[in-house]
Design brief:
The complex is a heterodimer of chains A (188) and B (283). By secondary structure, chain A is an all-alpha fold. Chain A has helices spanning 3-24, 38-50, 52-69, 76-94, 102-125, 133-161, 169-173, 183-186. The longest helix of chain A is centred in the C-terminal third of the chain and has 29 residues, at 133-161. The relative contact order of chain A is 0.15. The model of chain A has no long low-confidence stretch (mean pLDDT 81). Chain B has 283 residues and is an alpha+beta fold. Helix content of chain B is 36%, strand content 25%. Chain B is built from 2 helices and 12 strands. In chain B, strand 1 and strand 2 form a beta hairpin. The chains are: A mainly alpha (188), B alpha+beta (283).
Chain lengths: 188, 283
Amino acid sequence: MNERQHLRLRVGLLGAVTVLLQVTFVSQIRIAGGIADIVPLVVLAVGLLCGALTGAVFGFAVGLFVDIALFHWLGISSLLLLTIGFAAGRIQEARDPEGAFVPLFGAAAATLTYVLGYAIIQFLLDVEAPVSGVILRQTLVTMLLNMLLALPVYALVRSWLVPALPTDPRRRRRRATTTSLSPLSRAR
Amino acid sequence: MYDKSVRRRRAVLGLLVVSCLILLTATFGSTGGAGFFNEVISPIQEGASRALKPVRDLVGWFGDTLDAKGQVKDLRTERDALRQQAVAAQAAERENAELRKQLEMNQALGLDAYAPVGARVITYDPSVWYSRIGIDKGSGDGVKPGMPVVAPGGLVGTVEAVTRGTAQVTLITDSSSGVPARTNVGNPPVQGVVESSGAGNPNDLLLNYTPPRREVRLKSRIVTAGTNSRKFNSLYPPNIPIGEVTRVDDAGSDSQQVHLRPYVDLRGLEFVQVLTAVNGGRA
């Protein structure tokens, strides 16, 4: 099995476990009137670690899985999650952010995009009832819960994917240093 | 190379977006999802759900505990409020029963003719003598010293002193009290004066000064004698129940002592009525 297949396998397993965990466990735990949603967090992490293309495909596949598992119309979650995965990957490719809190703020943005985007699309397509302020409160609670989970989830995803990544992000980010034996040091 | 990568990326992205829109269009309006896929993943979902149930329950337990703790304060406040309401309701029910009894007594004895003024007992004699009570009606309500005071059951005492809004009532168990009384039966009835049998006993009165050799039977009812004389008006209207004969010492002798138990529980008074239209009031 080459590196690419190894990565695909790990990403595929990650997606399946994420959706099952979300559907069977996380979504059934209500805290302060809201529930956490680890799906956008995992998609964000995959996008940040693997790039835009992998992030987009992963988001699309996971979204499809979510929609199938929850008997939603197919395509809504896919569209939103592929957007999140692609955007996270493009940020990583274009900016290569090093801040430790990037996953945290990314989680807030991804959650808002996913939850509000889903609500807006549903509202535009089907929901005829007036919009309640409760939606905003629940979105806020979900966003806060996701921010709490963002760093652990990112760390877990990273530890799961790093062995299969063609370039270890840690290694890539390590700064170049010189030792006293280097001719560059002697030139000073 | 870079252009190729970018083109590939854009192509994949476009393909995915188009796929999403096609899927959305295709499944819009249906019950959603794909039946075949659902049949495949349903057992997996079920298995995962069962496997994760203990963890879910554990987390749920923590959540429920936190919620319960948050509710404790609210529930305690609610409980206190309900307790107060229950106490108030019980008090209102008791007061209602008391007032109903008063009303019945007024109708039975014709006390409405004496312009009764209802009053609430606000002070009790703190001593063991049970000789006085304070009521929340005074001269501003037409209450004057000497007016008789009754409660559901019978006679209570007389007004001793008044202020604008309150009055002191001397109970019939006070050693200074004397009420002209008679038995309710007999022709002629046995007359006497009801007095205290000894300070400190609210459950025992004496019917003194009974005529010699007039027998008074046990359980006879003693009522106020009253008068209809304009010249010698009694302080009390006639036929107000006072008590029931419980014991007769030296029965039939000149010095017989007739003991009676007052009908009114003088230690548990809540509402009384002052009869303001009796001639005996000392203005």
